[in-house]
Amino acid sequence: MLLLEMIKGIILGIVEGLTEFAPVSSTGHMILVDDMWLKSKEFLGSQSAFTFKIVIQLGSVFAGAWVFRERYFEMLHIGKYKAQPATGSRQRPKRLNLLHILVGMIPAGVLGVLFDDVIEKYLFSVPTVMIGLFIGALYMIAADMYSKKVPNPRTVDEINYVQAFIIGLSQAIAMWPGFSRSGSTISTGVLMKMSHKSASDFTFIMAVPVMLAASGLSLVKNMEYIHLNHIGFYILGFLAAFIVGLIAIKTFLSLISRVKLVPFAIYRIVLVIIIAILYFGFGIGQGITA
Known about the structure:
Elements: H1 2-19, H2 26-38, H3 46-67, H4 69-75, H5 98-122, H6 126-146, H7 161-173, H8 181-191, H9 196-221, H10 231-259, H11 262-281
Keywords: Antibiotic resistance, Cell membrane, Cell shape, Cell wall biogenesis/degradation, Hydrolase, Membrane, Peptidoglycan synthesis, Transmembrane, Transmembrane helix
Function: Catalyzes the dephosphorylation of undecaprenyl diphosphate (UPP). Confers resistance to bacitracin.
Organism: Staphylococcus hsinchuensis
């Protein structure tokens, strides 16, 4: 039984690491693997299982922080990563800075504080996640269809504050479970004539502090449900999410310029069909929440 529980924890960590930053909705995948298969209410106990999900999400967050660590060090002017002036110039080259990130974080931060309880109460269900997955997929397809062949900015350093704010607004929309934070923000960036790569870079760089704050706050609120005899599960899940997250983020960033968003959108639609079959066809959706 102990070995089985450890395997479940590792699987959940792998799923989280694979899907947290990809535009496919980690929420939708956790429903399939957790609620429809692993039955998390029997895994560590319902509330402890919830804190376990927070811990493995932190694993993914730290993976994103590690991938973009030089960017964060540069924006914070730490050590050798402090931005340097361009050769032969007294002025620094145009670079992404903390203000871009803060401007992008404002919409989701404000709406999160105001409506977090409402969202959790009314939107965290399988049907609402299915809606988010499907509509988000259509939005991603639209972004690819109407994106310009010669996008601008080509790199994340060329983004302006208006673009950062509008992308932040789309991140707020992704508070609807299943819509996908990265799916909505990358699509919005592409529709604003950013390249897929620059939109993805900004999405991931902005997501780390947002997710770190949200996950950290949730962990503090649920600290009482963390038990010493579960620490091994937390460590395994965290490491699985971190390692797989590193691989997933680097792979996605190397592919996005070539494959664009449509393949991920098609995958999301297929996922909706699978969830619908499991949820409605086999009657296992009763009592399942996202």
